[in-house]
Amino acid sequence: MKRILFVCVENANRSQMAEAFARMYGGAEVEAVSAGSAPSGRINPKAIRFMGELGYDLATHASKSLDDIDGEFDAVVTMGCGDRCPWVPARRREDWALPDPRHMDDAAYRAVRDEIGERVKQLLESL
Question: Of 96, 120, 114, 4, which Cα lies nearest the Cα of 54?
Answer without folding.
Answer: 114
